[in-house]
Design a protein that fits this description.
With 157 residues, the chain is α+β, with helices and mostly antiparallel strands. Helices cover 43% and strands 29% of the residues.
Amino acid sequence: MADEVLVTVEASGLRRIMGVGMLGAIGLMLLYVASATPPSLGWLVFLLGVGIGALWLAVRMWQATEHKIELTEAELRSTDGTVIARVADIEAIDRGFFAFKPSNGFLIRTATPGGRTWQPGLWWRAGRRIGIGGVTPGSQSKSMSEILAAMIAQRSL
């Protein structure tokens, strides 16, 4: 019963293709500008660095968005086997308009800090803060955050 998946958040195929496609297009355009009309050495290095970085990020986003985020009664986890957070460790959820959260997502604050991790387009963790969302649909993220909020409220009773 504790391992039953309550709700999942995943990137749809179209969102995945659009996000990765835009990053790839930016990277290719920057590399084209750097090779077609080479600017001064400083700008050339900058354009090449940002272009290669955007292409690398597109590949990382494609790999990361293959997975889903699952919420069970005990933990929030990725389908790649990573435990994002234990439900008992979650202190607060921030879904506010001005919260530093991913697009279409929410922010979780845990009691114990974790290592820095970034799965572009899906989730990130920096210390005690975890951001869920990115290229995921807002409806899935909203339902997950509401279920988590209800679990936390029930726990405090």
